[in-house]
């Protein structure tokens, strides 16, 4: 059976690429510049998901710093430019993108990572060629949890909202998909905080990206869950 959506919009960090260590590295280099304590990757991972500024704000709050975040951001972005290509793709991601693309499904990325870091990362992980649309945190006036970037991508792809599926890992993906009125799938790995996978309203919760392809075999109304 055919895949039941014409466009799939993927989140990036925590969904396609495991970028937490690379992000944590850039955060800690920035904290060191300001002579502040550093944090382990697990703790910093809890601050990912709402863009670089929120991430740095969280880090500096935890470090009890009252530094002006406007003064901190340029240094962070310089460090992140050095680490941003370090994250590996999760297992089966590239194969899944290739399969969907081969079936004629359009693919896009909607991330709260700054746009300048997105294409190089997708390119180095062998994914860039599969995507028609890419929206980063600074591409449009609004970003996730707003549904605006998702609606922008479906309009750009000339695909109806009802034919568009969002795949993500965290609260901001859920809120954005709900705001846009789009079905969404959650990955059970990734960087969610307090999000309850079972009650979030996802049509499916998957443990590995290739399980997304199982949607082609299911009744769209019932959805699937590979998470036990
Ligand atoms: O960089 C972030 O804050 C999160 O990025 P994501 O939207 O790709 O998960
Ligand atoms: Mg994410």
Automatic annotation (TrEMBL):
Keyword Hydrolase listed: yes
* Top-level taxon: Bacteria
According to UniProt, this protein's pathway is:
Organic acid metabolism; glycolate biosynthesis; glycolate from 2-phosphoglycolate: step 1/1
Alphabetic keyword roster: Hydrolase
What's its catalytic activity? 2-phosphoglycolate + H2O = glycolate + phosphate
In its UniProt record, a GO molecular function of this protein is: hydrolase activity
Q: Which InterPro entries match?
A: HAD-like_hydrolase_sf, HAD-like_sf, HAD-SF_hydro_IA, HAD_2, HAD_sf, PGP-like_dom2
Tell me if Hydrolase is a UniProt keyword of this record: yes
Q: What is its EC number?
A: 3.1.3.18
Question: Which Pfam families does the protein's record reference?
Answer: HAD_2
Record-stated family: Belongs to the HAD-like hydrolase superfamily. CbbY/CbbZ/Gph/YieH family.
Q: What is this protein called?
A: phosphoglycolate phosphatase
- Organism encoding this protein: Luteibacter jiangsuensis
The lineage is: Bacteria, Pseudomonadati, Pseudomonadota, Gammaproteobacteria, Lysobacterales
